[in-house]
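retry 2 of 3: previous attempt timed out while embedding adenosine-5'-triphosphate. Reduced batch size to 1 and resubmitted. Inputs unchanged:
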Amino acid sequence: MSFKVSLIRGDGIGPEIVDATVRVLDALQADIEWEEVRAGSGAFKDLGTPLPEETISSIGRNGVVLKGPLETPIGTGFRSINVTIRKHFDMYANVRPAKTTPGLATRFQDVAIDMVIVRENTEGAYAGIEHVIPPNRAAAETVILCTRWASERIVRHAFEYARRCGRKQVTLVHKANILKETGGLFLEVGQTIAREYDDIAFNDIIIDNMCMQMVRRPEQFDVIVTTNLFGDILSDLAAGLIGGLGLTPGANIGNGASMFEAVHGTAPDIAGKGLANPTALLRAAGMMLDHLGMVDKGRRLEESIAAVLAHGKAITGDLGGRAGTAEYTDALIAEIGG
Ligand code: ATP
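retry 2 succeeded.
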């Protein structure tokens, strides 16, 4: 049976890294039928809207979308196209793995990092509840929203993910000592749900200590679950530990649909030059293969990426090499075929 997946090529380096990813999935013989739809500033230019109705209905129909980075054109009434898609499909869990690639020169190359950050994606400090207090913007307020319901579903998602992927530990990151109500509720929910999963170890850690621990001993972490703002910051920290944004994928898991993407942006400075590193989107495609049940193909993809990066011959500029997108992609396809 083949899976129908919506495909958004996106803006900037999007089309280059999406095309590379489609070539690699073809080489893996992944059973996917792509349904290409438009979004972003390219769509706005050609179709007069950055998020056509057909794109939303395609994602809703297929339940899965692989997406290149998008630029949100100014003055179209959208704060962000990415956020609009995530909200529309209630994509509540942002999942970002960060794993050391053996042989790849990074600041932490001697440490075996293998962590997954599960970030609550709908509320916290990013719930969008903000006020300005007059006169002359004398003050401003942002409300941190923490509901028991959303906390339960994200913590449960982290434990279920850990169980499914054979992981051993879930660490909940919070600031309950200062944010006594919101942080306290999130921690309490975590401690309660942890009792349902006695096969998985549970601990909690305060965000400031977490930042230090992630830099001093990042190998101690496995699955991390946290609120929206802390998750946003920690996932970029984790990306930095393993070699940067060009390597880091992200999944947005929702009830209506799930979206797989690179965490970096459109990289306008190198767009159209054939220099982009497609690894982050390739790894996002690997997460998508897992999500669709093609776990072996996902593993094969990750092993092939690791082999090409470790070999060190076809490395893109962001990682200190000289290869372009095509040369790297060819090396990967040769590795898959070999
Ligand atoms: P946006 O506004 O869309 O977020 P940006 O340039 O502010 O774009 P990124 O696109 O994340 O932010 O890029 C940050 C830097 O990292 C840029 O110098 C870019 O060239 C580089 N970069 C990002 N992604 C890649 C990639 N896949 N391959 C190579 N370089 C990349």
